[in-house]
Amino acid sequence: MPFRQSVKHFLMHLSWIFILPSSGAYAYQTQLPDLGSPDLIEYDTQTEQRLGRAFSVALHTEFDLNYDPEILNYIRRIGERVITQTGDNRAFSFYVINNPSINAFAGPDGVIGIHTGLIEAVRSEDELASVIAHEVAHITQRHLSRQYEYQESEGSIASIASIIAAILVGTQDPNAGMAILMGGQGYVTQKQLSNSRQHEAEADFTGIKFLYKAGYNPKAMARFFGRLSRQSMSNSGQIPEILRTHPVTENRLAAAEDRAQTMPPFKPREDNGDLRLIQLRLQSRQKQELGKLFNEIPLNDDQRCYQLNDLDSNPADKNITKKLKNLQCLVKLAKSESKQPLYTDLLLEKLTGIINNSGLPKKDRTDWVSQTKEIANFAQILYPQRQDISIRYAEFLEAIGDSKQAKSLLLQHSSDHYNFLINQKLAEIANQNKDWGYAYFYQAQAQYNIGNIKYTAHLLKQAKEKNKNANNDLTAEITLFENQNRNQLNSVEKTEE
Questions:
Q1: Please, how many CA atoms are within 13 Å of residue 477, restricted to the half-sphere of its CB?
Q2: What confidence category does residue 72 fall into, taking pLDDT thresholds of 50, 70 and 90?
Q3: pLDDT at 236
Q4: Whether residue 85 has pLDDT greater than 80
Q5: CA 445 to CA 482: how far, in whole Å?
Q6: What are the structural domain ranges in the chain?
Q7: Can you give the residue ranges of the Peptidase M48 domain (predicted)?
Q8: pTM of the prediction?
Q9: Structural fold of domain 274-287+300-496
Q10: What are the C-alpha distances in Å from 48 to residues 110, 122, 409?
């Protein structure tokens, strides 16, 4: 690959490191535009989409993403509530990164990442939504386009040299690498810093509007950033990453509070308890000290039931009677708390684990399978769009030997915007049933969903090869998929010529 192309590819994968998490002090402006500054020069939509796909692939291949269906569904439901208020018709994508730092970022073409450390740090869903709204605003305000334009027009060679140096040094000390990057920019860096101040102002200003219109407390943004700022001042040397990428000053907090005050009276939403249960999932999976997240407000009985069963994840423990006894409280909650399907999810997840690892005793199997299917079917009726429920139910059905219904259930989500996990699960079922052609085909669709077009093309070829002599509908399905996505698949073929 020629040097110029290498550098371009390099920049595409690294742009999020230095472009959107802004730095520098905050300068509040009383009148801020909702749609970006007048000097905005955007790159074209196709370029942004290509950059977004490359960025998404980098996230999935180079970082530790959290693929827990419940956690992903929770973040995406908040994100979707916010983006419906933006008027922006792009296909936003929300991902969760396994990283203890309190941080979030906005990347190209609507890709937003939330660190698990941030989810654990917030005290309410409103605070979590406020950060998501802020990142969404970075994208709707076209902040990436502005920074990209300045880099192209001023000091490109110096910037490239600094970035390469930063990465080389950053292999041992990322902070030192970024210091070299910023130190080598000179006048360009100063201009970018000035723009970052404006961008943070706009993201707060616009994000609070999105937050309120989505039904969240507009005061949550200032409250969350203010608390982090106070905690960092009393805990010298431990500044949360989000305060480095979204620096807080008294002026910024005051501006956010003033902006919230301009909103009409706010009617609080009913708290369904999702945040607490999601934080419990993170806590148990990251082997944190019990009670660390909840030292201010004790768990109620329902949450203790959830925690008890979520922590009971030792497959080597053969005490099935004890495990089933613990599940009784989840059964009761799943039946009575229809507004809280996370109890149903955990019941399905844990019972599936018991079946796969030890098997249900014959005397208990019929009753447990029957009542669990009844609970899951009801949840499916209430929440047909929730992938987490469908995935957990499909896993349960597969465990009891009903692969056909499991596949049918998952295929209902095949046209969802986020179908990576759905297709991964379909590929897993096909693989277990030695249906190799479909296993490759579903993997191809999963890779297409995250923007990995080159790997998609490779997997489609494998699917055709494995399906040569099979008597099924796969050939027609592959042809339809290729026709629907011909332009992008052709772009891979042209690149390889």
A1: 17
A2: very high
A3: 62
A4: yes
A5: 10
A6: 3-261, 274-287+300-496
A7: 74-259
A8: 0.83
A9: 1.25.40
A10: 9, 32, 34
